[in-house]
Every structure is written in C-alpha cells, then in structure tokens.
C-alpha cells in the first residue's frame, strides 16, 4: 500500500511474468499445425542481397515449403528449420549454406528471428501466426519479401 495516496503498489516483476505467460500461451495455440506456402513476393531479390547464387535461388523459388511449430520440452521446433529457446542465441546453417548466429524471440503470435552472418549482414524474419495463415516477412538491408503459408487441414 502506498502511504502517500493509499493506492496499491504493483509488483513490476509479477506483471512482466504474467505478460510472458500470456504470450507463451498465445503462441502455443499454433503448435503442431502445418502451413504450406501459397504466395511469395520479392523472395528472389532478398536471396540476391544475401549473395545466394543463381542455381540456389532457382531451387529456392521452386520449393514449396511448409511451416510447423512444435515444442520439445522447453525448446520450440520449427519444422525443417531449427529448434530454439526463445531469446537464446544459437548457431545455424541457412538453407543456402550460410553460417549465422540466430536469436528468435516470441511476442504474442509473432516469432522474430534475427540472423547475423559471418560478414555481419543482418537478416530479420518475422513469422506472424494466425488461425489460418503464417505470414513471413524477411528483411535484409533495404529489401524485404513477404511469403504467406496457409494452414493445411487433415483429410
């Protein structure tokens, strides 16, 4: 109780913990759902900025990947991508064979990944989950691309 005005003092640590729990439960509503690529805009340009060769870019454009987020203990797992602890940096080799240091954070329904390659080039990838889609926005330098993945229903 605040002696000056009689109001109750809030425990800041408790509020931050409640906030984290709320957002972790929100992202968990999207676990184990499969999303398939249905639209892609400017992906080739982002690959060019990253220095991806012509053949690898061609392959990247032909692939129709899926996204699936699951959980293994405390670790989150992105299907065919990586497993990670939110906020903890890890080594990762990208599909185009670049070695990066990556950190993924979770805020609500958004996974934000920041990759830094051996040359200091920074790539930011936001994966925004909804009940029907995952929208992936990838930014490198002043170039960005958007890819949309639609949920796949079991038949």
Summarize the structure.
With 155 residues, the protein is α+β, with helices and mostly antiparallel strands. Helices cover 21% and strands 44% of the residues. Helix 2 packs antiparallel against helix 3.
Give the arrangement of secondary structure elements:
Elements: H1 12-28, E1 34-41, H2 43-49, H3 54-62, E2 66-72, E3 75-78, E4 82-84, E5 90-93, E6 99-107, E7 110-117, E8 122-129, E9 133-140, E10 143-151
Antiparallel strand pairs: 1-2, 1-10, 2-3, 3-4, 5-6, 6-7, 7-8, 8-9, 9-10
Helix pairs in contact: 2-3
* Neighbour order of strands in the largest sheet: 4-3-2-1-10-9-8-7-6-5
- Tell me roughly what share of residues is in helical segments: 10-25%
How many angstroms separate the termini? 57 Å
Tell me the number of helical segments per DSSP (H or I, 4 or more residues long): 3
Under the CATH scheme, the architecture is Beta Barrel
Radius of gyration: 19 Å
**Which stretches are low in confidence, meaning pLDDT under 50 for 5 or more residues running?**
none
Largest sheet: 10 strands, antiparallel
Shape type? globular
DSSP summary, beta strand count: 10
Structural classification: alpha+beta
The CATH homologous superfamily is called: Calycin beta-barrel core domain
Strand-residue proportion: 35-45%
How many domains make up the coordinates?
1
Instruction: Kindly identify the CATH topology.
Output: Lipocalin
Question: What is the N-to-C order of secondary-structure elements (H for helix, E for strand)?
Answer: HEHHEEEEEEEEE
Write down the overall mean pLDDT. Answer: 84
- The CATH class label is Mainly Beta
């Amino acid at each position: 109780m605040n002696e000056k005005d009689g109001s109750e003092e809030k425990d800041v640590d408790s509020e931050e913990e409640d906030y984290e729990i709320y957002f972790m439960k929100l992202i968990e509503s999207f676990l184990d759902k499969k999303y398939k690529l249905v639209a892609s805009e400017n992906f080739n340009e982002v690959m060019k900025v990253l220095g991806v060769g012509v053949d690898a870019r061609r392959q990247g454009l032909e692939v129709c990947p899926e996204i699936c987020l699951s959980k293994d203990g405390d670790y989150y797992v992105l299907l065919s991508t990586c497993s990670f602890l939110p906020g903890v940096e890890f080594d990762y080799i990208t599909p185009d064979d670049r070695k990066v240091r990556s950190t993924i954070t979770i805020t609500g329904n958004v996974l934000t990944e920041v990759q830094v390659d051996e040359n200091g080039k920074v790539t930011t990838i936001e994966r925004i989950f909804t009940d029907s889609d995952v929208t992936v926005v990838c930014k490198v330098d002043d170039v960005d691309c958007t890819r949309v993945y639609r949920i796949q229903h079991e038949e």
